Amino acid sequence: MSSTQPARGTRDFLPPDVRRRAHVIDIVRRVYERYGFEPIETPAFENIETLTGKYGEEGAKLIFKILKRGEHESSGQADLALRYDLTVPLARVIAEYQNTLPKFFRRYQIQPVWRADRPARGRFREFYQCDIDAIGSTSPVVEVEVLSAVSDVLTTLGFDDFRVRLNDRRVLQALLATAGVPPDRETDALVALDKLDKIGPDGVAADMTARGLDPGVAAACLRLFAPAPDRAAVETLRSLSVRLADRKDVLGTLETIVAMAESTPVAGRIRVDPSLARGLSYYTGAIMEIAVPDLAGSLGGGGRYDNLVGMFLGREVPACGFSLGLERIIVVMAERGMFPPDIASAPADVMVALWDESSRAEALALAGRLRRDGLDVDVYPEPDKPGRQFKYAASRQYPIVVLAGEDERRTGTVTIKNMRTASQITVPMADVATHVQTELKRSPVS
Amino acid sequence: MSSTQPARGTRDFLPPDVRRRAHVIDIVRRVYERYGFEPIETPAFENIETLTGKYGEEGAKLIFKILKRGEHESSGQADLALRYDLTVPLARVIAEYQNTLPKFFRRYQIQPVWRADRPARGRFREFYQCDIDAIGSTSPVVEVEVLSAVSDVLTTLGFDDFRVRLNDRRVLQALLATAGVPPDRETDALVALDKLDKIGPDGVAADMTARGLDPGVAAACLRLFAPAPDRAAVETLRSLSVRLADRKDVLGTLETIVAMAESTPVAGRIRVDPSLARGLSYYTGAIMEIAVPDLAGSLGGGGRYDNLVGMFLGREVPACGFSLGLERIIVVMAERGMFPPDIASAPADVMVALWDESSRAEALALAGRLRRDGLDVDVYPEPDKPGRQFKYAASRQYPIVVLAGEDERRTGTVTIKNMRTASQITVPMADVATHVQTELKRSPVS
Predict the structure, then answer these.
(1) Angle in degrees, 0-180, between the axes of helices A140-157 and A326-336, rounded to the nearest 10
(2) Which residues of A touch B363 (CB under 8 A)?
(3) Of A86, A315, B322, B414, which sits most exposed with the smallest number of CB within 10 A?
(4) Does any domain span residue B6?
């Protein structure tokens, strides 16, 4: 007998789960469209070369590879891989359809991605990303629009306490240089620092020295990157003055983003945080993360990546985006009771009970009549004692049961039982839908 | 430079494609819910043992396998596999959550599946199935409800010429016995016959003899299974009288399904077709397929599988379901022009043009004002000549452009350009949303 569990790190979603997920996705989609973002979808798997060399060392380890089919299967060769994020597939799409897509393409994409990560609380091997990206412009208007849209999503979902951390890849690099990290070891240091939330300062220090960084340099990094909420961001930025090339440009852009954001839904939520490190190797400019106090890690993150499309296209196309994690949003919303109460409502408005075998066609016709009137209708599939059928309807929380027994069929009527008020009426068959609609509007006795 | 193509047999969906797919999926979902079906979702991949031994020989060949991660990677061992359909994952879910799910569980599931099939016109390696299944009853009411729901979907989408072919696995077996196929070679014969549409009678005969079936038996099978529209189904069924065990039961059930269907949306569309063969090995009773004249193959198929859940649960749970193929529906709808004309509408109602760098914050505030009024708004991201911005807006088919230039900002006004009527007005900033809404309702000059 086969095991009945889903694969490790993945989950089944039963009807109440799917309804909660659909509630969030609908709002995400609606808000993204309000900002002019358009939907695209890409395949679950890509040619393996599409994904390799895009995520850095840590990412590469987590890519699920698919065995080549046919005669090559026994060789263990992999020619396909499950997508690891939605950004690299987007970069490929931009390059492939460059003549079709508009100059400033705003796209959203809500699809699952897969990572062979160690499963943990809130961390899965299959999870949904809700991405927006704006392609084609280096203007900081893009960063502000992206942050506005995701803030608007979270506000519409009911979040009122999220905070945005904003940094720039180049500030990070300057910080690393200040700490004594050689330019060719920046990636090692960043990959280690990005795990600060997960493995703590000691883990990061150990990881850094394991990667061959000097222990003194590791300690200096940790001093600079340890959370320091009481140190003003501007101070830290000033201290970078010596090392930061393009200082005026980089700091100016961060200031512009914060200033422009004041006239948008993200107003008052942004904190420039020079210690914000994001591990993905493709970021080139602004990087950002959104978090709430009661969730370790973030609800989502993003940034500017002006070179990634060029890896497919051969010429650079600027881009900036943000990815909201569906599962992380849902975890917090569930814990805080933020879902509307009617979301777990009954799967149907009405159940048609079955009197006996000879009345099956009439029961199906009755169900059809109610459905044509816009009602969601289940049919009890086999003849059974009325008491058992009503008990089943109660267990399913169906508000209404309709039944055409022998008497009713003789007189061309139907009996409607209101399960919430425990009352019942017998009405002409022709009027059944109207009466059911009326009963549905009656309040429960409680 | 990496290739920019999606993997073989898969496709990217650009915004107009996604909108068409969403149109179909929304209708499918709405109709399925009208029949009391509830949504579930399952992971893209399963433990490999969950899928093996469930689809028969041909299916097994087409399963995409995922390499075990970590130190075992070089061994070429696969421990996971992409789901091949939505039915086997459902059977696993029924077994896993048997104490949570209702006795008569009606579920729908709209998700992609993956098959390493040879790609061809309308046949992909990644495609969406829109499944409904009713669990827990052997009553033929279930078959009728399932067929009614999918017929209702197709009618609501605008199809008026689809036909349902209905058969029973046991009638098939009787036909095979009549042709001289030994009981232990039934699967071989069915797998070959299921390819009749794809490879023709000669291909099927060759495949059968390659599988060790007697050439005379192969010829007899082809005589019985060749499309014979002018031979009445009842005649064929009569000719089975000798060989068909449970004849009364099997033929009675088919007759009951057809009779009950007459009071539902599938009325008049069902044809009992003893030559209908479906390849999947898990069917045990009724099998069915829906087709339209202008598409080779079917729009979808299904049947009863009373033993599959038992492979996970250890006790039998009756089940019957149907799977509509999203891509096949879309191919026909596109060719017939069945999509509503407004589906490829502009990605936004309004574009906010950008006067100069110093007015960026004001442009963002203006966009926010319009969005709060329910409008979908794009913002031109960088300062540019007004003519180029209007040209861009025209190329995107945005109906309205709003602009606050120097004059407007001095007087607290905004200029609204209606791109369809080529007229423009200047209005107070406070009233801009109302005026844009009015302009959107004006007819184009054409």
Answers:
(1) 40
(2) 141
(3) A315
(4) no
**Whole-complex ipTM:** 0.91
Same structural domain, A319 and A184: yes
Q: How close does chain B come to A333, measured CA to CA in Å?
A: 20
Q: Name the minimum distance, in Å, from the CA of B1 to any CA of chain A.
A: 5
Q: How far is CA A118 from CA A198, B49, B398, in A?
A: 12, 21, 46
The identity of residue A316, as a single letter, is E
Does A3 fall in a domain? no
Number of domain units in chain B: 2
A42, B4: Cβ pair inside 8 Å? Answer: no
Q: Looking at CA atoms only, how far is residue B218 from chain A in angstroms?
A: 28
Quote the DSSP letter at residue B182: -
Domain boundary among A341, A375, A404: A341
B67/A141 Cβ within 8 A: no
Instruction: Kindly state whether residues A321 and A357 are assigned to the same domain.
Output: no
Which residues of chain B lie closer than 8 angstroms to A399, CB-CB? none
- Whether residue A6 and residue B43 make contact (CB cut-off 8 A), yes or no, is yes
Question: Contact A38/B45, CB-based, under 8 Å?
Answer: no
Distance CA B62, CA A207 (A): 42
Task: Quote the minimal CA–CA distance from A339 to chain B in Å.
Answer: 18
Query: What is the pLDDT confidence band of residue B446, given thresholds at 50, 70 and 90?
Result: very low
Per-residue model confidence as pLDDT tens digits over B36-79: 999 999 999 999 999 998 887 778 889 999 999 866 666 778 99
Considering the domain architecture, whether residues A93 and A166 belong to the same structural domain is answered as: yes
One-letter identity of residue B399: P
**Nearest-CB residue to B92 (from A4, A21, A76):** A4
Residues A274 and A409 in one domain: no
Nearest CB among A49, A64, A114 relative to B2 is that of: A49
Same domain, A323 and A383: no
Structure tokens at A276: 């914000």
- Point out the residue among B66, B116, B145 whose CB comes nearest to the CB of A64: B66
Alpha-helix residue ranges (DSSP H) falling in B62-139:
87-96
What domain range is A410 assigned to?
A: 346-441
Please state, in angstroms and rounded to a whole number, the distance separating the CA atoms of residues A192 and A199.
9
Residue at B302: amino acid letter: G
pTM for the predicted model, two decimal places:
0.92
Retrieve residue B136's tokens: 């827990």
* One domain for residues B337 and B361: no
A405 and A273 in a common domain:
no
pLDDT tens-digit readout, B377-399: 999 999 999 999 999 999 999 99
Kindly determine whether residue A76 and residue B76, on different chains, have CB atoms separated by under 8 Å: yes
Which pair of structure tokens corresponds to residue B118?
Answer: 């040879």
- What is the token pair recorded at B319? 């089940």
Would strands A400-403 and A413-418 be described as parallel, antiparallel, or unpaired? antiparallel
CB A351, CB A416: distance < 8 Å: no
Residues B131 and B269 in one domain: yes
Cβ–Cβ gap B263/A80 under 8 Å: no
3-class secondary structure, A201 = helix
- Report chain A residues whose CB lies below 8 A from the CB of B92: 2, 4, 6
The amino acid occupying position A329 is I
Alpha helices in B180-303 (DSSP H): 186-193, 196-210, 215-225, 233-239, 247-261
What CATH number does the domain containing B262 carry?
A: 3.30.930.10
